Amino acid sequence: MSEELFVPSEVGLKSRSIDISSYTKQLKPLFTVLYHWSFGIPLVLVFFAVWEALPRLGIINPLFLPPFSTTLKTLIDLTLSGELLSHSLVSLQRSAAGFSLALLIAVPFGFLMGHFVQFEKYTDLLVQSLRNVSLFALLPIFLLLLGLGESSKIAIIFYAASWQILMNTINGVKSVDPIYIKAARSMGVSDFELFTKVILPASIPSIVIGARLGANVSLMVVIAAEMIGAKSGLGFFIQNAEFNFLVPEMYAGVLTLAIVGLTVNYLLVWAEKKMTSWKRDVSSAIK
Amino acid sequence: MDIIVAKDVRKKFKLKHGQQVKNNGIVSNEIDALGGFDLNIKKGEFLVLVGPSGSGKSVFLDIVGGLSTPTSGVVYLDDKPVDAPSEKTGYVFQQYALFPWRTALSNIEFGLESRGVVKEERVKIARELLSLFGLSDFEDRYPYQLSGGMQQRVAIARALATKPEVLLMDEPFAALDAQTREILQNELIRIWEGTDTTVIFVTHSIDEAVFLADRVAVVTARPGKIKEIIEIDLPRPRHGDIRSCSAFAANRHKVWGALKAEVNKAQQDWKHAPVNSK
Fold this sequence. Notes:
- The complex is a heterodimer of chains A (287) and B (278).
- Chain A is mostly helical.
- Chain A is 83% helix and 0% strand.
- Chain A is globular.
- The N terminus of chain A is likely disordered.
- Chain B is α/β, with parallel strands linked by helices and 278 residues long.
- Chain B has two domains: 195 residues, P-loop containing nucleotide triphosphate hydrolases (Rossmann fold); 67 residues.
- Classes of the chains: A mainly alpha (287), B alpha/beta (278).
- Chains A and B meet through helix 9 and helix 10 of A and strand 8 and helix 2 of B.
C-alpha cells in the first residue's frame, strides 16, 4: 500500500508493463529517487560547469578553487584509498550516537511537557533558556567540562539535536485532535491506553519530523565538533586539509559532506514515509 | 421500562475572560446550554433529538455518554447515575473520528481491546460488522482511503462492536451528501430494527428525524430543554418509499410546527447577542 503511494504512477505503470515486477518492485524506491533527481540534475550540472569554468578562465585563482574535474579526481582517489570512507564512518558514528541519545531523552521529555501542564509549567523556562543559547558559545564549555575525547563531541551533538526533537514532540502531543480523545474515552479506555493507543500514534508524524530535523542537525554539528581537537572524522579531514593547504582534498571533503548529507536525508524521508504510511500523501493532493 | 432517565439536567459553560452573552436580556459570562432537561427514554426505542443550533443537544449526548458532567441534575442509565463513560454506551460522531493510523478493521477492534477481548474474537466481530455494512473488501484500508460514507459506516460499526445497549449518534450523517445520507439512513434502520439497542440520535434534518424515530423530542432554543415529544406513527419495518407517503408528510408537519418557533427564537438570540461589550 505504502509503496503504491510512494511511487509516482508513471513509474509504477512502466515497471508493471515490462513484467519483471518482483524484481523492479525492490528497485521502486531507487526509481523514485532517480525520477525526482532527473529534474534537478541539469541545474547541478550547471553548477559544476561554473565551478569548472571559473578557475580555468582565471576569474578565481585555481590555488584557492581548483576546477571541479580536479576535485572530482581527488575525491575518487581518496574514495578508492578508503580514507574518505573511514572518516565518513567516524563522523556518522558520532552523529548517530548523539542523535540516538537525543531521541532517547527528548522524546519522553517532550511527552511529559506536552501532556502534563504542570510539568511544562515547571520546566518550560529552563528549557527555553537553554534552547536559545548559541551552540558555538557552548562548544568550548563542553570541551572544558568533558575534555577532548569522544564524550564532548557526542554531548554537543546530543545537545544540538535535542531541540528539534523536543519541540516537535511537544507540538505533536499538544495538537492531537480532541475528537480522537473523545472517541477513545467514549469507548472506555484507561488513561494509560489513551496515551499508548491515541496520543502516541497521533503524535508520531510530528515526532518523526522532529527526528529528521534532529538528524540533519547532528550531521552539521559533528563537523563543527570535529574541527576542534579531533584526530578523525570528516570535520577533522577538511580542517586538516585546509591547514596543510591541500586545497583539492579540502573540497573533496566538502563534496563528501554533501553526498553523505543527501544520502542520509533520503534514508530519513524514506523512513518517515514508512512510519506514517497511514497518512495521506500530500503530493497526491497537489498534483 | 426506561433505560435512560434525565432529571432536571442543567449545564453552564463559562466563557473566556472578557466574553459575554445575553440570556433573556441579562448579560452574563456564562452560557446556559441546558436548562432543566427532563427526558425518559424507553429501552429499545429510537429517539431523535431535534432543535435549533446551540440548543445543547450534543451537550446532552455527552452527558449521557459520560464525557461531560452536568452542572446540576442527573442522568440515570439503567437506574445508575452516569458519571463516566459506560460500557453500555457507544458513540458515533459527526466527524467520524476514526483513528487515521488504524485500518478499518483495527478501528472496529479498538473498543474491544480495552475490554480484554482476544485477538481472534475481535477480528471475528469486526469482520462480521464490516460485512453487515458491505465493507468486507475494505478491511485493510486506512480512513483516508475511504469515502465519507464508508468512514461513517466504519465508525458506526466501531460503536456497535462492543454491543452497546445505548447508541449515541451526534449528527452522524450531517457531513454526507444527500444520496449517501439516505442510503445510510436505510442501512441504519435495517440494522437497528434487527437489534434491541436504544438509539439517541441528534439531527437538524426533520426528514431524517421522522424517517428514523419512534419519538422525536423537540428541544427549545438555548437554554435547551424538551419542548414537546412527538410520536411518529409510521409502521415498521420502514423502507425508503415511506418518505413519499402522506402519513410521512403529516408527521413532518407536526415536528416542524413544534420546532419553527424555537428556530426563530434562536435566530433572534443570535441577532441580539452582543458581539463585544466594548
